[in-house]
Design a protein that fits this description.
Blueprint lengths: L1 H59 E6 L6 E2 L5 E7 L2 E4 L7 H12 L3 H8 L6 E2 L8 H10 L4 E4 L2 E4 L7 H4 L11 H5 L1 H5 L3 E6 L13 E3 L6 E4 L3 H18 L3 E7 L6 E7 L12 H5 L2 H4 L9 H10 L9 E4 L2 E4 L2 E4 L7 E4 H6 L3 H11 L1 H10 L26 H8 L8 H12 L3 E4 L3 E5 L6 E4 L3 E5 L3 H17 L13 E11 L2 E15 L6 E8 L8 H19 L20 E3 L8 H5 L6 E5 L4 E6 L5 E3 L3 E7 L3
Parallel strand pairs: 2-10, 25-28
Antiparallel strand pairs: 1-8, 2-3, 3-7, 4-5, 4-6, 8-9, 10-18, 11-12, 11-23, 13-16, 14-15, 17-20, 18-19, 21-22, 22-23, 24-27, 26-28
Length: 650
């Protein structure tokens, strides 16, 4: 008994100690748990609090987007060419609408839409909806909607693109879509920079989507896009657009192309083409009209304007002396069994090589091509930038087509020398001729000058002139300028002569090819002019595609257009008229008499290259002259009309 008792007392003692220990452990664990909870609570309350409130606010918040203003496009003098007009947009928070039928009723009346359509849009299961018919509405309409005081209906700030000059410069500017995204032209090329970042007004709503008025709205400012300043000069662009409108009305051509550039740095001063379109209504014209910016996209045979390249190569390589050397043109030249004709029946006879240039004599240029040889001529053709893109900052640029050097035989060499069988873009020609006359440097053409922050007015990006390479020497360039000035004063480019300004230039008539064959009676006539001839400030190229109601001559159709652009353009640029011109062959008002050549047997292509300053009244179905009136040998005044009767070749 005694032992048992002792044992149980001992046991009880042990268990008391154990209990105490366990209590201590439990208390410690409890304390630890409380400590962890406390720390966690503190962390949640003091550190995560803002974030969690933000998240909660995020789940309560609804954004009404505020669109940024797209950057403006301005000319070199800051004249706005593409700008914005404010156009509000209607947004809906469906869960806040207590009376959908009544709201749809009122909304549809203001926005000229059916009630069913309005009801369908305002009862969508989304947190926020943009009403399709309420996009970019007038301020009057927005005011009407605000006046209705409809719950759950909001007006967001938005804008739409505005082109103050209509179809002016349209292919270059392009246009922006309904979401202010660039779709064509510079609007597309510089879309990222013009775009900006959208802002918003945040308001707060509870789980039912009802607005929580005790929480203030947050406003995030949109960041407006950068403004784009161009190299374009609206004064010159206006003159070009006017002259193209006149040419369009006079000749009803298939198309017209015009480029004006500063030859000393590659800055484009004006660019235009026909057919044209109004960027605000681009959907009203066929896609190919607004998709094709012809001055950079189209490729065709250059014709005689290409002779400038052959001339430059021959002078640089020392293959010709324009004054001292003579060339006898008997009317055609035989090359590897092919007969290449001069436009003048019977040829020009003996002439200096300067007269070869003035008279645009094909056999003379064939001779220059042969003296150079194919490797050297084609080296210059490539050096002047043909067969590759110029790199202008416009989309859709063409590369043109050159003969593959392995396949160039004597005939291809000869035709290339006077601009046939090669295919080039207008932009390539302007860049190349600029290099020939500016002292010998080929520049990359460009049209965007600067990107400017609209708030700070700070220049964010600046395009500077890019010299690609030196093609010819200063000395050669000077000689080319002199030769081309004499073309205008005393040769085929007389119609581009501008009193008081020294103009140089070159005519071109190219037959259009299709499917590997030349089209009959279908020409692109062009003129490349520059002035002042001793220190060129502007190069102007105009090409008219298939002019109607006239026989196509570069000298009669396009030279006067370039002359008119030069006359007004140089004054607009502040270039003073001078008295040191090369004398024009005949002083006004003496009207020269032209002795009519015998035109029988000539094709329309050959006549267009005669560059006679005459109007031609053509009749008959064919392509070859069978008779003429007045008769060959008669003397007629310059500018008078002669009748030609055409028939098919026998």
């Amino acid at each position: 008994m005694q032992r048992v008792k002792g044992g149980s007392v001992h046991n009880m003692r042990v268990s008391n100690v154990t209990v105490r220990k366990r209590l201590m452990v439990a208390m410690f664990v409890g304390f630890l748990i409380f400590l962890i909870i406390d720390v966690r609570l503190g962390y949640v309350q003091f550190i995560l609090g803002d974030m969690l409130t933000g998240q909660a606010k995020g789940s309560w918040s609804r954004n009404i987007p505020f669109e940024p203003e797209r950057g403006e496009i301005v000319d070199r003098n800051g004249v706005a060419l593409a700008t914005n007009v404010s156009a509000p947009t209607v947004w809906v928070v469906p869960r806040q609408i207590k009376d959908p039928a009544g709201t749809a009723d009122k909304l549809s009346a203001v926005l000229n839409m059916s009630k069913e359509n309005a009801y369908r849009q305002i009862t969508q299961g989304q947190s926020i909806v943009r009403i399709k018919e309420g996009r970019k509405i007038s301020h009057e309409k927005a005011k009407e909607i605000r006046a209705l005081g409809l719950e759950g209906i909001y007006i967001g700030e938005d804008s739409k693109r505005h082109y103050p000059f209509g179809s002016y410069l349209s292919h270059v500017l392009g246009f922006a879509g309904v979401d202010n995204q660039g779709l064509m032209g510079l609007e597309l090329f510089y879309d990222k920079e013009l775009n900006g970042e959208r802002g918003s007004v945040k308001f707060y709503a509870n789980a039912k989507g009802e607005r929580m008025d005790d929480m203030a709205d947050d406003y995030e400012h949109p960041v407006d896009g950068l403004d784009l300043k161009l190299t374009i000069d609206t004064k010159i662009q206006t003159i070009v657009e006017r002259e193209l409108d006149i040419a369009q009305a006079t000749y009803n051509p298939d198309g017209i192309i015009a480029i004006a550039m500063n030859p000393n740095n590659g800055e484009i001063l004006a660019m235009s083409s026909r057919p044209t379109f109004d960027p605000a209504n681009f959907r009203n014209v066929p896609q190919e009209v607004y998709n094709r910016n012809l001055p950079v996209w189209s490729t065709y045979e250059p014709g005689s304007t290409f002779k400038i390249i052959t001339l430059a190569a021959a002078l640089e390589e020392g293959k010709v002396d324009l004054e001292k050397e003579h060339f006898h043109d008997k009317g055609s030249v035989e090359v590897a069994g092919a007969r290449l004709k001069c436009w003048k029946r019977g040829g020009h006879g003996s002439q200096s090589f300067l007269e070869v240039v003035q008279n645009s004599c094909n056999p003379g240029f064939v001779e220059l091509g042969q003296r150079l040889g194919k490797d050297t001529l084609f080296k210059y053709v490539k050096d002047f930038g043909f067969g590759q893109k110029t790199g202008i900052d416009l989309a859709g640029e063409g590369t043109g087509i050159l003969f593959n050097l392995q396949r160039v035989g004597p005939v291809e060499l000869a035709t290339t020398a006077f601009g046939q069988g090669v295919s080039v873009t207008p932009m390539q020609q302007v860049a190349a001729v600029s290099a020939a006359i500016n002292g010998g440097i080929l520049y990359k053409p460009f049209i965007a000058k600067e990107l400017i922050d609209p708030v700070t007015k700070e220049v964010v990006m600046r395009n500077t002139p890019v010299e690609k390479r030196r093609v010819i020497s200063e000395e050669t360039s000077k000689e080319i300028r002199r030769a081309l000035e004499s073309v205008v004063a005393q040769g085929t480019g007389g119609k581009a002569f501008v009193d008081g300004y020294r103009v140089g230039g070159k005519t071109g008539t190219a037959q259009k090819a299709q499917g590997g064959r030349y089209l009959e009676n279908n020409f692109i006539v062009s003129f490349m002019g520059f002035a002042p001839a001793d220190d060129p400030q502007i190069v102007v190229y105009v090409a008219v595609d298939n002019p109607k109601g006239t026989l196509a001559f570069g000298g009669t159709v396009t030279a006067p257009i370039v002359g008119a652009i030069m006359n007004d353009g140089l004054r607009a640029m502040g270039v003073e008229p001078r008295k040191d011109q090369i004398e024009k062959k005949l002083k006004w008002p003496d009207v020269p008499l032209i002795t009519l050549p015998d035109l029988a047997g000539l094709s329309k292509q050959e006549i267009t290259e005669q560059l006679l300053n005459l109007k031609i009244d053509a009749s008959g179905e064919g392509n070859v002259v069978v008779s003429q009136s007045p008769a060959p040998g008669s003397k007629v005044e310059e500018g008078s009309t002669i009748r030609l009767y055409f028939n098919k070749k026998e």
